[in-house]
Structure formats: C-alpha cells, structure tokens
Design brief:
It contains two helices and 29 strands. The strands form seven sheets. A five-stranded mixed sheet has the order 1-21-20-19-18, with no helix packed on it. Strands 2-25-24-23-22 form a five-stranded mixed sheet, with no helix packed on it. Strands 3, 26, 27, 28 and 29 form a five-stranded antiparallel sheet that branches. With about 375 residues, it is mostly beta strands.
C-alpha cells in the first residue's frame, strides 16, 4: 500500500469555523431503502460451531475476520463464505493474545490489539511481529499504513473541550498533531466528564474515516462533522440539528449485568454516566457519500441500524435503515460492515444461534 505523507500540518491551538453549515433533521430525498439480498451465510468455522462471535472486519482482499470470545480465537473466511483458518488464540506466546480488545487493517496487514501491544498478521493469518502500544492512550482511529496511525486524545480522560487528531509514527514512537478542531465552549455542562468506562452509545469518542484523499471525522457527542484534506486542513464542516436521545438508569445498569464489578461500584459508575446518548457510533465514506451510523439505543443488540447519508458538501440526502427481519438481531456497528455493494453482518436469531452472512445491498450512486 502506498505510504501517505501529511504536509503542512496545522499546529494552531484553536480553529474557528466561519463556513459551517447547520442542517435541519429532514433529508432532502427522504428514506433510502437498502433492499438486502442474502448471498450466503455460515454458522461454523470448519468443524467448530460458533461460540460467541463478534468484531467483524473485511479486508481490501475480501478476507473476512471475526473473533470468537467463547473459544478465544479469531477466524478467517473468504468472500465466498468458506472457512480459511483459525489464528491468534489466547496465550502469551508469539502470535497469541493475552487479552483481545480490537482489530484493524494497517496497509496490507491485519492488526489485533491487546491493552499493551499491537499484533501484526498477514491477511492469511500468519503472525509477523508485535509492537508496544498503550491502547487506552493511543486507540487507532485509522491506519494510514503499517507504520502510522491516526488517534485522538482518549475521552473522557482528555479535557472536555480538547478535540485533536494526532499522527503516531510507530518506528520512532513520536506523535505529531495533524489538526486541532477544538472550539470555545461557553457551556460544557452537557460534555461528559465521567469515569473511564467505555459504553456504546454513551461514552463520547472521535470517529474518523479516510478514503485516501480526505478525512471525515467528528466527536460523537456533537453532531458536527468535519472534512479535511490529507494535509490536515479542514475544508468544510456541517452540523445536524437533532435532539439527543436519553438513556434510562435501567438501560445503563443492563450493561453491567454480566460483569464482575461489585454492585456498589456499578451504582457509583451509573450515577456519573451521562443521561444523553451520543449522536453516532461510526462514520464511513462510500462512493462519494458520507454515512453516519446514528445511535438510537444503547443496547448491545439491535434489529435495525439507522444510517444518515450526506453528500460530500454536507447535504443531508437520505435517512436509511438496514435490517434483516424481526427475528434477527446484530451488534452494531462492530458486527456490521459495508463494503462496495455488499454488507457483511453477524446475525443472531431469537434462539441465540449466530451466523455470519453476506448480503447484496443497494447504495446511492449519484446526487444532483
């Protein structure tokens, strides 16, 4: 993969945006229908039935990766749905993981993260090397290549008004600020200042996608999206005028139902969590459109994912929903992956049976 270089990096502390567009929560062309059509499904990895699979990733070579948390191992499938191999079991030897936390693609490699290391594998699952990295301080938003990734100061550890993108060079261990998109905020009462507990739909995070020419990013507790070029210069931004949804105490408590955290500690954490959900959980750049995965609940599973579709100019064009039938749930967005004209998904039936499936979907092609 061609290495990307960032020139003319912005180092000014605060950027003021004069051309920001505020958009009403009313898509210009109404609802978009994805019309998912199943191509294939799989419910086992060779002779092994799925245990509890999640963390879906599809590489540029159309290999499909997922983690089985019951068997503590990762699986590879090809684009036809055929099982290829297992790799990265739990353990402390080379090619093993002490504690799986996340997965990424880095150039032509697959990276599996533990709290203190990034483990690099070839796309066929062969272990290559591991490097030191504190995932709680430097969580990769996007790998530009095998040696560089972009991250943001980890929330809520960072100051509530701090919004930066940082380029980390793995060989040298050096950081370089790409840009600072902080803005003065006179009222930070709605900004999250709680304990370091990452909860889907509640804990604010910076999300970013990069298509090789431009970066699209934003912090999830504000529906404000920025578009920047590869030099780190913000080209435009837009915000959607949408009211944040709220989460009940019971919904928050459900996140700790199967944890080993003492009940007294759980109640203290819940008391410090925000009542309002984040606006979105994921950003994708696809065929010249910006896809924003909206947060509509904080449950671990859902039957429907709302996706707001914008033009690159920031026009709110469609509001769409991806769903696969009332009897099938999925964990979004980690179990849902859109690539080309297809969506890959880990589904769970009402009986608790999991399947990996590929669907053909209809995507918008142009907007005039």
């Amino acid at each position: 993969m061609k290495k990307i270089f960032f020139y003319g990096l912005l180092l000014i502390p605060i950027l003021i945006f004069s051309g920001q567009t505020s958009i009403k929560d009313n898509p210009l062309k109404g609802e978009w229908r994805f019309y998912p059509e199943k191509i294939w499904e799989a419910d086992s990895a060779g002779d092994d039935d799925f245990g509890r699979v999640a963390e879906l990733l599809v590489s540029d070579k159309q290999y499909i990766y997922l983690r089985d948390f019951e068997h503590n191992i990762s699986y590879i499938f090809n684009d036809k749905g055929h099982f290829i191999k297992k790799f990265a079991p739990q353990g402390n030897e080379k090619g093993q993981l002490s504690q799986y936390l996340n997965r990424f693609q880095a150039g032509g490699k697959i990276v599996l993260a533990t709290p203190d290391k990034l483990h690099f594998f070839s796309q066929d699952g062969t272990f290559e090397h591991a490097v030191e990295n504190n995932l709680f301080l430097r969580f990769p938003l996007f790998f530009l290549n095998e040696n560089e990734f972009i991250y943001a100061p980890n929330l809520p550890q960072s100051p509530v008004n701090e919004k930066k993108l940082v380029l980390y060079d793995i060989p040298s261990g050096k950081d370089k600020i790409l840009l600072d998109f902080s803005e003065p905020e006179t009222n930070s009462e709605n900004s999250f200042q709680g304990p370091m507990v990452m909860i889907f739909g509640l804990t604010p995070q910076v999300r970013l996608d990069y298509d090789g020419k431009k970066m699209v990013f934003g912090r999830s507790d504000q529906y404000k999206i920025f578009i920047a070029n590869q030099a780190g210069e913000i080209l435009s931004s837009f915000s959607l005028d949408r009211k944040r949804m709220t989460a009940s105490t019971e919904e928050k408590r459900n996140h700790f139902a199967n944890s080993k955290i003492p009940e007294e500690r759980v109640e203290k954490i819940i008391a410090q969590l925000p009542d309002e959900m984040t606006y979105f959980s994921h950003i994708d750049s696809i065929n010249g459109f910006i896809y924003i995965f909206a947060v509509t609940n904080i449950g671990p599973m859902t039957t429907s994912q709302q996706i707001d579709i914008f033009s690159e100019k920031g026009e709110y064009i469609y509001s769409g929903k991806i769903e696969f039938g009332d009897n099938f749930k999925f964990g979004s967005p980690s179990n849902l992956f859109i690539k080309d004209e297809y969506v890959y998904v880990i589904l769970e039936s009402d009986q608790g049976k999991q399947t990996l499936a590929k669907y053909r979907i209809k995507l918008p092609q142009t907007f005039n």
